[in-house]
Amino acid sequence: VSTFLVRSRAGHYPVRVVPGGLARLGGFARALGLRRRAVVVSDAHVAALYAWTALRSLRRAGLAAELVTVPPGECSKGRAQLEALWRTFAALEVERDHAVVALGGGVVGDLGGFAAATYLRGLPLVMAPTSVVAQIDSSIGGKVGIDLPEGKNLAGAFYPPRGVLTDPLLLGTLPERHLRAGLAEGVKVGMAVVGAVFERLEGDAGRLIGRDPLALGRAVLGCARAKGELVSRDEFEAGPRTALNYGHTVGHALEVARRYRGTLHGEGVALGMRAAARLSQRVAGLPERDRLRLETLLDRLGLPRRLPPVGVQTLLGGMVQDKKRRGGRILWVLTPWVGFASVPRPVDKRLVRAVLVELGARAGR
Amino acid sequence: VSTFLVRSRAGHYPVRVVPGGLARLGGFARALGLRRRAVVVSDAHVAALYAWTALRSLRRAGLAAELVTVPPGECSKGRAQLEALWRTFAALEVERDHAVVALGGGVVGDLGGFAAATYLRGLPLVMAPTSVVAQIDSSIGGKVGIDLPEGKNLAGAFYPPRGVLTDPLLLGTLPERHLRAGLAEGVKVGMAVVGAVFERLEGDAGRLIGRDPLALGRAVLGCARAKGELVSRDEFEAGPRTALNYGHTVGHALEVARRYRGTLHGEGVALGMRAAARLSQRVAGLPERDRLRLETLLDRLGLPRRLPPVGVQTLLGGMVQDKKRRGGRILWVLTPWVGFASVPRPVDKRLVRAVLVELGARAGR
Fold this sequence. Notes:
The structure is a homodimer.
Chain A: E1 2-8, E2 11-17, H1 25-31, E3 37-43, H2 44-60, E4 64-70, H3 79-91, E5 99-104, H4 106-118, E6 125-129, H5 132-138, E7 143-148, E8 151-158, E9 163-166, H6 176-192, H7 195-209, H8 213-233, H9 248-257, H10 265-283, H11 288-300, H12 312-320, E10 331-332, E11 345-346, H13 349-358
Parallel strand pairs in A: 2-9, 3-4, 3-5, 5-6, 6-9
Antiparallel strand pairs in A: 1-2, 7-8, 10-11
Helix pairs in contact in A: 1-2, 3-4, 5-6, 5-8, 6-7, 6-10, 7-8, 9-10, 9-12, 10-11
C-alpha cells in the first residue's frame, strides 16, 4: 500500500496505489467525504470486467451507485460523447454533491473528467484508472478534455480530482498491445524526469511484459509519484510540467494525421521520443549511448521503430495545431541526458524533416 | 472612475466601472499583462455598435485583435455555438497566451467565457459587459456556461476572468425592454443582499428608465460592488452567494418551460421575486409593507406582473432540474426583510402552487 499527496489549487488530493484497491473504492470515496451517490463512467470493455466490483464496493459503503458507459476507443473522446454524458447526468438527475468515478483508461478519464468538471459547474471527481497510461500519467494532475476535429485535447480544463485510486492488478487483463503502449509513457517519465525510474524500467522490462505484478506495481508507483511531484510544483503547466510533453510533438501530430486510428497514443509517444532523442543528440548534446539506451528500452518493450506511411508535410502541419506552439513556432522538449528535459524550444525545420524521414515518414505530403 | 477587486482562487481581479471605458480596453488589457492577441467574442447586434471601438483600442495598444460573432439571443447559449467557437479558435490558431474578450450581454459572457475556460484548458478572459444584467451581475464571479435541452446552465465552469471592464454608457443603446429586464437583477441584489442598493433603486427608478447616465452609473457600481463582495467571500457558491439565486427558482423554470423564448431572463427573475416575496411573506415573516415595496418597484420599472400562460405542473417540473435542488427537493431563497436572504430551504408545495396560480399560472399542466 502506498499513498502520496498531490498539491492543487483546490488543496491536496491523495493518490492511493494498492493492489486489489478497486474492491475498496467505496471506503476510499467515503474517506474523501463523498457519501450520497456516485456515477461510475466507464467504457464497455472495462465495465464488463470491473464495473461490478466498483459498484458493489460503493453500495456496500452506503452510496447510491450507477453505471454509465461510453463506447471504447479513442474516437469516444469527442463532442458527441461529452454531450451524451451531460444529458445522461441530467436524465439521472445528478446533483452537485454526487460524485463521478472515472473507471477506465485515458479516454474515460479525460472525457468523464471533463464532463464532471463542467456539469453543474463541477462535480466531485474520483479517478479509478485501469490502463497503464492512466495509472502512471493521465489520472494525476487534473488535465481533462476532449479532442476536436482540428486537434487533440483542444477543449478541456484543469480540474483536480478529489482523489485517485490506482489498482495495478487491473493491468493483468489489458490487451498486450495496450500494455506495451502504456509503458511508453513510463519510459517518458524516466527519460524526461527521473533517471532512477528509467533505470528501473530497464531492469524490469522483461518482467513488465510478462505482467509480473510486483514489477508492474513498482513501475506504476514510481512513475505516478514522479508525475505527482511534477504537477504539485506546476499545476497549470507553465514550467517543469512541460517535461511531460517529451515525445508528444510527433505523437500528437501522428494521431491527428491518422485521425486517432491505427496508432495508439503510447505508440505515437514512443515514436515521438525516438524523434526527440535523435534531435536531442544533434542539438542538445544527448550522448549516442543514452540515445541507444532509450531506443533499446523501447525495442525491448515491443514499441514501434518506424512511423506509419505518413507524409512529412502532414506531420509538420499537425504539429502546428499543438498547444506547445508559441508564436506560430513548433517547440520541442529535448533531453540532454537521461532524466532531464529542456524547456520547449524551436529546432531547425530541416533537421526535423531529416529525422522524420529517417524514422520512415514519406518526404512530401 | 471606480475600480474594485474581486477575490478568486486564481488571485484578485479588478472590476473597473468607468463611463467611456470601452475606448480604453486596450490599455486595460495591457495592464492585465495581455499583450499578444485578443479575440473579441460578441453578438451581431453588439458588434455592430461597439466592436469597432473595442478592436481599435486593442490595436492601438499593440495587440493583434480579431472579431468573432455569435448570433444574438438566448438560444445562442448552446452546444452548437460552443463547438463553433472552439472550432473558430482552432481555425484562428489561437494560442494559450491569447486573450478572449467577451463583449456583450449575459449570453456572450457565459458562452464566450465558457469557450475561453475550456479551449486549450483555459485562455485569459476579459469581460466587457454591455447589458445591465452583465454589468451588474453575470460578468462578475466567474460563472460561465451553456444551456442543455434539459435545463439552463447545466454545463459550465467556475472560471474567474483576468479583469472586468464595465462602461455604463453602453447601456444607452439597449432596447428598452432589455434595460427594464436587466434592472430586475439590480432589484434582486438590493432585495436579497444590500438594503441600501434597494433604496437607491427606489429613489432612481424614474431616472433609470429615462437612461440618466449618472443614475445608471450609480446603480451599476452599487450592484456590481455588492456582487463582487459576495463572490469574494464565496467563490464556489457554497454559502452567501446563494442569496443571488433569489427569484431564480421560478425564473429558470419559466425559461425552461418556454424554451428560452418569449420571456427575458430578467423578466423571469422579476416574476420569480414576486413569487419568492409572497412565499417569504407567508413563511419567513416578510412584512406586507416590504413585499409591496418590492412589487411597486418592479411595477415602476415596467416589469411583468403576471406569468405567461404556463401550467403549474410544467413550472414545478422545470424547478426539479434546478441546480439549487438538493436531495430531490426544490429549495427557495426567501427574504424575511429587505436586504437579507435566507439559506435555500424547502417550502410546502401547496403554498407554492397557490402562489403560482395567484401570479397567473394555469392549474394543471
